[in-house]
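Problem: given the chain below (883 residues), write out its structure.
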Amino acid sequence: MLKISYLTDFFRLLRYLTRRLLTVGLTIVAGVFLTVLAANHTQQIETSIEGRLNAQAQSIWRDQHPGLNISINQDELQVILDNLREEYGLNAGFLERHLTFTRHALLYDWGNVQFTSFSFAASRWILPSDASARGIILDALPATLLLVGASNLLIFVLGIPLALLLSRVHGSKLDRFFMVLAPISSIPSWVLGLLLVFVFAVELRLLPVSGMYGIITDLSPEARNAAVVRHMILPVAAIVLSQVFQLAFTWRSYLLVYANEDYVELAKAKGLTPQVIQRDYILRASYPFILTSFALTLVGFWQTTIALEIVFDWPGIGRLFIKSLPHFFNESMFPGEMVITVGLVVLFAYILGFTVLLLDFLYAIVDPRIRLNTGRAESRPTRGGFAWRFGRRQERHARPPLGVRLRQALTESLRSLGAVSRRIGQIGRELLRYPSAVVGAVVVLVLLAGSVYALVALPYKDIAISWNQTSVTGRIDRPRLAKPVWVSRIQGEDLLQSVVLDSRTSDPAVTKTVTTQDSGAAKVTLTYDFDFAYDLPPEEILVYFHTEFGEKRPFVFWTWTRPDGTVLELNQLSVINGDRIALYDYAFRGQRSIFKALEARPNLVDVAEEDLPRAWLFGGADGDALTPQPGRYTLTIQALFFEPDVDMDAELMLLGQTYGAAGTDLFRRDLIIPLFWGMPFALVFGLLGALSTVMVSMTAAATGVWFGGWVDEALQRLADANLILPVLAISVLVYAYFGLSLWVILGTIILLSAFGSPLKTFRSAFLQVIEEPYIEAARSYGASGFRIIFFYMLPRIFPVILPQLIALIPSFVFLEATLGMFNIKTTFPTWGKVIYEAINHGISFGSRFWVLQPLSLLLLTGVGFALLGYALDRVLNPRLVHD
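Solution.
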């Protein structure tokens, strides 16, 4: 009988997996078909096939005419080409043609790819211009699998022991410390990767910046393997940091849900050791949730790390996917190779399908409460229809008058509002007991205050638009890549901010004299005196000329007088009205003048060429050539005019190393504007994105688990299709070809995210909840499905919701920055846009504050919500409060 039972279970499992295989296969076909439609919107696939068929037709014609060194007969070539077009379905109708493309995509039957632009670097080797699409993809796959395997193995090996440890010491300092670290896992891996590169590769020079091998002199296998491991350290570390803390904190919260179950208390009463209880009673019951979250993390790995492979120039399918899309590369437009793009989509669809099947199989193995019934894995009998809309059937009574019903409704509403307000007040008083809640609330209040200030004091119409425009046009009155003023004060440096001396004002430091000659010509002399006692010379000295003349330009002679009395003649020039002259460019009067300066001051020999002008104008003859002489400097400008009725004024601007409270970027823009404007965006994207995603996915998961049958099946197929399609990549295609706004792209990603991995994660949790005794009790006394879902099932997993919210809030804030990596931008000065621009320019130019300030605010936002979530976890879930 036992063997028969095992055989019965085996055949049920086999039927179930066969059914799931067919379902997943159909989902993959449908998803790939939709991807083909999107990719071929501008005939990209057909263009690629046409190029390949042209080359194939020429090859066939030459095979038919061997040994003939003559030009190709175009009529015969066209006949061959028409036959090939007919064979590949290019002459068929719209639906039949795209179904043919889908079949080619599923079978990887694309033949060779004809690259239409630069030589395509698909992997660690430069491939020829005519290569197999299948070969290109399979050549790049091992590098990504190596990165995926190493990083996810570390995540799983480190995550589960860490979650078990945190569940045992819940509420301790160690638990709170890792709770604070949870938002780090919401930072995209490519951002963490760039920060790691900046610290360990650029600053400390301990690890390589990018690549997989580097320059290898020893070609032995041991040396090659060592080079690969060394190049893997930073990308693997970035991936692990972007996942492990959030997963461990989520798993820890779910383990705590089962820590006080009745069977756990019974195990404690039997005298079992804590290790046995955690392993056999708590961890085993949590396997479905842990496996689901980890498997979905593994499935979603490629979309979150395709940018990482670009950052590290890692020769995997992520970098291949980015390079196959239309983009600008080295100021050249690459039209894209959609055959490669679609092939990669199919590859990941196969990976997802295998993962989904493996996950369903593991469900049946690790969770004995899931029963295999008629080929369907169910946690409970299927409930048909939508009878829950009506609840229990009640005997019909005579309806009271309308006035009575309105008074009753008003009374019940007031009573409900009173109960809600009392509950909110109680929660508020409880939160005040936790310092973490106070700190988190302060962070949120600061964000709210900053948002109000940005909207009121920095209106977008007046400030933000000009912030975007000053990178191209506008008056230069700020230094480039300046530090915040407070940084120089903390470091104990006395650095220049900005000094402006204008001859059009009554500034006593500026004198102006005008002399007229007998011929009617005039000479205007401007003298600027200023004291300088800073640690470094000005980064730039700009002179704006405002001239009035007829036809002949004035000629300018100017001199620079140092505190020691040395007078330096600057290079002469002619100017017009509005000229902006960089004084350092005129510090020397030709190459001979530079040689004389080096002879006069030997300490200039070791100065870099770009620093010679400032060292010559400000430095002394002894010691460090770049240390300015303290004292008074004088700039004298003499303009000689050659006609009457003329005049000239000038502004002298000394731009230093510091500016304002936040400094400036490479484009001289004040960073205080995006720092404040990023606050309302952080709140809107973070809160609305996280709340909408969690609530939609949680409600959908609870509905599917409760009703089962076709409702649950439809939701699961929707989730499978959503996970199969590369949402981020398709969003890039839609943005590029359809011109949709960033807001539409963001809204689409948020909506699809709700029906992706969160739906499966919450479903695995509800499969456990639905078998709880109080659910059966609610069903027995006739509670409606609506009431059971919203009043019994959803509150049961609130401890799991909070970690999800904590992780999702900063992740949605970073979403805009991630989209920027794919050239999806916004005109609003947000944190994400500033970080993206700083990553592209700031690290190369040595500006730390450009990227660190918005990144710090992002981390502060995540930590603030994490601390507040921790306190809410303690208040709303009394089962987690220690006696």
